[in-house]
Amino acid sequence: MIVAERKPFQEIEKMLEPYSKIMILGCNECVTVCATGGAKEVAILASQLRIRRKSKDRYIEIYEKTIERQCDREYLEEIKDTIDGYEAVLSLACGCGIQFLGEVYEYITVLPGVNTTFMGVTERHGFWTERCQGCGNCILDKTMGICPITRCAKAIMNGPCGGSQDGRCEIDRNTPCAWNLIIDRYKNKGMMDRYMEIMPPKDWSTARDGGPRKMQREDLEI
Amino acid sequence: MRLSYPANIKIIRIPCSGRMDVIHILKAFEGGIDGVCIVGCMEGDCHYLTGNLRAKKRVEYLKKLLYEAGIEAERVAMFNVSSSEGIKFAEIARGFTETIRALGPNPVKLKKHKEG
Amino acid sequence: MSGSGNLERVLRSGRFVVTAECGPPRGADGETIRKKGDLLKDYVDAVNVTDNQTAVVRMSSLASSLILKDMGIDPVMQMVCRDRNRIAIQSDILGAAALGIKNILCLSGDHQRFGDHKTAKNVFDLDSVQLINCLKTMRDEGRFLSGEEIEITPQIFIGCVENPFADPFEIRAMRLAKKAHAGAQFCQTQCVFNIKKFKEWMEMVRDMGIHEKLSIIAGITPLRSYNMAIYMKKNVPGMDVPDDIMERLKDLPKEKASDDGIEIALEIIAEMKNIKGVNGIHIMAIGWEEIIPHIVKSAGLYPRP
Questions:
Q1: Given an 8 Å threshold on Cβ–Cβ distance, is B68 in contact with A48?
Q2: Helix (H) or strand (E) run with residue B21 in it
Q3: Contacts with B, A 49-68, CB within 8 Å
């Protein structure tokens, strides 16, 4: 899932300075799972903003709405009759949803209420960590299911580096060394000879480095 | 026990302190309430095992949310009392009322008071 | 430009080499490098120039290496993977070779979190093993990574680093084997304080026959004070300073501590000379370069060939 964090309250407050009638639009998928932009968080933010405005004797009208997701036209259509009435829409969806919202409703001012960070997993309730960088050329079969591009701070393909200590990465004692994890798996499966294979330089053109990406399925397009 | 505690306290009963969620309290402050205290069972005595621990975490989070919104974090507090401790409850109620009185009215009401 | 540098010649002659490290200045000042070069010239066979070490911006290792070369010193230009993509890397390799720099040491590089520009993008297009292999391909096959031909190939003596004290310990010899297989011809290790562990590592290295494939140069850092020892033990990733060394320095007054630090370094050097497969020492005395001539002389390694 895509993980995002709500922007600091002061930053949101500042963004909303010019407005007195807004919609806060949440998303029922990824941002709900990471407790950042679902219906609950929409309600909390709306309440905080009203309290803040009231205590400054300023008015704000907030319409709270959460749709299934903001990255698909069919769900964005649900708000087509209500969206025009608002000066701005503060979206709590991930960066994809926020942008698409602005594309589908071209004339509306769309503001980001969150900082989208990474593609990751729920390691446990309340704790999410990064797993995938979308490099476009998955090598998980070669690294026993652990991604060195994402989980190694230096994206080393022939690791570990000399800073790995006690199974931890040199940049953060709380981050496991990805190569340590990979080697443990090689050992457990009796596949240490795999470790000696030199992985060649990566083709980064399938990653973000190659430019904005797209995928097309002509069989699905009419 | 028929002990007295200040009349300005309204008691809302919920099956477990863990039933409380931050949005309920935020709405209360939005409506002008001056203070909210969450009273839960002693840690380790929760009938639902971890309800009061969840409440504790939520109250800590709530303090942060209130502070962001310009409301003093002291306006919300959690206390752990067992149901037989009537005296302790009364003391808590009195003490909390004093804290809130010292803070003054909820900032949400402030400007209106000035006008009025 | 063909012909080997001094380092390669001394290693091939079978003699025990001495190299040292030189950190470029944080300014556009060539004089600092010249002064350090003058200090080290007669006492070492080659001088390493670090590449934005600890991710702190310093004068480029290519420029600094050229300054040393012009003084008659054989520079070992360090190249990290953190700041450059493969285009810039291959370009710098061609440049270094054209300027007559004979040795390049390939490293991953410290993460920029340690440095003074934490907000920078990090590159890591290649890792150190791929960098070594890139150099070998350019030199021996005359091809760029893209597969296209190089008109005049760079003649470079390829170096790598290895840290016998990092984890997991069991693979540290395997990693060196990988680098040797990729094309590394010499290896400078992280500084040795834990002799026992180093000897264990060397045993693994010899078992795999790696000592016959590349030259191993042991890292030596003289400890100047107890505080320095603490800093290295706690703050430098992959550093192993055993307790008995800590104890030795602990209760000494400052002047005595640096003398003892030198004693310790000399003891370690003496041990290194007797380990089969160790072909030299690499003295890293950043900020204390002036002590290097004394150490080289006291270790019986002066004069240099």
A1: yes
A2: none
A3: 49-52, 54-57
At B12, list the tokens.
């809302």
Q: Give how far Cα C120 sits from Cα of A149, C55, C107, C114, Å.
A: 18, 10, 19, 12
Contact C22, C64 (CB under 8 A): yes
Structure tokens at A23: 């919609």
Helix ranges, C183-253 (H): 195-207, 226-235, 243-250
Q: pTM here?
A: 0.91
The pLDDT score that the predictor gives to residue C1 is: 41
Chain A touched by C199 (CB under 8 Å) = no
| Chain B residues 21-80 with a CB less than 8 Å from chain A | 21-23, 26-27, 29-30, 65-66, 68-71
Residue C249: the pLDDT is 87
Query: Inter-chain contact A54–B65, Cβ cutoff 8 Å?
Result: no
- Chains C and B physically touch (3 or more Cβ atom pairs below 8 Å): no
- One-letter amino acid at A133 equals Q
Neighbours of chain B (3+ CB pairs under 8 A): A
pLDDT digits (tens, 9 = 90+) for C142-156: 999 999 999 999 999
Q: What is the mean pLDDT of residues B12-40?
A: 94
CB of C161 closer than 8 Å to CB of C133: no
C71 — contact with chain A (CB < 8 Å)? no
Q: For residue C237, which phi and psi values (nearest 5 degrees)?
A: -65, 140
Closest CA to B58 of A44, A9, A49, A10: A44
Q: How far is A54 from chain B (nearest CA, A)?
A: 5
Chain C interface mutation, best of A152, A161, A192, highest count of C Cβ atoms under 10 Å:
A161
Q: Does A153 touch chain C (CB under 8 A)?
A: yes
Residues of C in contact with A183 (CB under 8 A): 168, 171
Which chains reach chain A with 3 or more Cβ–Cβ distances below 8 angstroms? B, C
Q: Are strands A127-132 and A114-124 parallel, antiparallel or unpaired?
A: antiparallel
In this predicted structure, the answer to whether residue A73 has a pLDDT above a threshold of 50 is yes
CA dist C144 and C151 (Å) reads 10
Angle between helices B22-30 and A39-55 (to 10 degrees): 30
Distance, in Å, from the CA atom of A147 to the CA atom of A139, rounded to the nearest integer, reads: 7
Could you tell me if C182 lies within 8 Å of chain A, comparing CB atoms? yes
Token digits for A99? 């942008």
- Nearest residue in A to B106, CA atom: A55
Residue A183 pLDDT > 50: yes
ipTM of the shown complex: 0.90
The C-alpha atoms of residue C266 and residue C260 are separated, in whole angstroms, by 10
Could you tell me which residues are beta bridge partners of residue A21? A61
pLDDT digits (tens, 9 = 90+) for B52-85: 999 999 999 999 999 999 999 999 999 999 878 8
Given a contact cutoff of 8 angstroms between Cβ atoms, the answer to whether C232 and C54 are in contact is no
How far is residue A216 CA from its own chain's centroid? 22
Cα separation, A51 vs A42, whole angstroms: 14
